[in-house]
Amino acid sequence: PGYFAVTSNVDGHFLRAGFDKDLVREIHGTVMEWQCKVPCRESRCGYDRNRMCPRCGKGIRPATLLFGDTGYVDDARQERNFTAFLSSLDSRPTPHLVILEVGAGPTVTSIRQLTSQISSHLSSLGSHVTVVRVNPQHPLPDGLPGDQINRKRSSSLTSSTKKPGTVTHIPVLDTCLSALKRIDGFMQ
């Protein structure tokens, strides 16, 4: 596939907006699905109007990851699909790859950390990765003081046995909707 959508939002927006369900990874779950409170199995269950797990009869809850949550049941299909997508990038490194990170802030850092891990790994395989980080308050790359980078872009090389690629950061200090409309305008 030419893209994969990864989100830490639990609102089911990508699926409701029509994205292919096999190309979406909701890393913190979704309020659109349910799971057993126990949990009695490593899979999710459907909603029961009596709010009971159809497998064990215990209560159910939204399938969302909360802070310190040890009972969360991840979506195994989404995890497999995303892992397969990443493996495909490993097996045939893409010369140029863009990661568009929209609205990920420094408080819940799951998406920012994932962006950093993926871009570093793929650049070590020789890919040239461009990270476009859209955030109205925190668009700069993590770990770099604001006065040490050019606000338009920064590059870094990663050592590897293969020819190293690059990671280029393009911080976009804007709201998400405004930035997406501008990006869409450039692509028309």
What distinguishing features does this structure have?
188 residues, alpha/beta, 8 strands, globular
Q: What characteristic shape results from the CA principal axes?
A: globular
- Percent helix: 25-40%
* Strands in their spatial order, largest beta sheet: 5-6-8-7
Count of alpha/pi helices: 4
Cα-to-Cα separation, first versus last residue: 21 Å
Q: Residue-averaged pLDDT, rounded?
A: 86
Rg, please? Answer: 19 Å
Number of strands: 8
Largest sheet: 4 strands, mixed
Order of helices and strands: EHEEEHEHEEEH
Strand content of the residues, in percent? 15-25%
Unreliable segments (pLDDT under 50, ≥5 consecutive)? 146-161
Structural class based on helices, strands and sheet pairing: alpha/beta
If you had to describe this structure to a student in words, what would you say it looks like?
- Helix content is 25%, strand content 23%.
- It is α/β, with parallel strands linked by helices and 188 residues long.
- Strands 5-6-8-7 form a four-stranded mixed sheet, covered by helices on one side. Strands 1-2 form a two-stranded parallel sheet.
- The protein is globular and about 55 Å long.
- Residues 146-161 have low confidence and may be disordered.
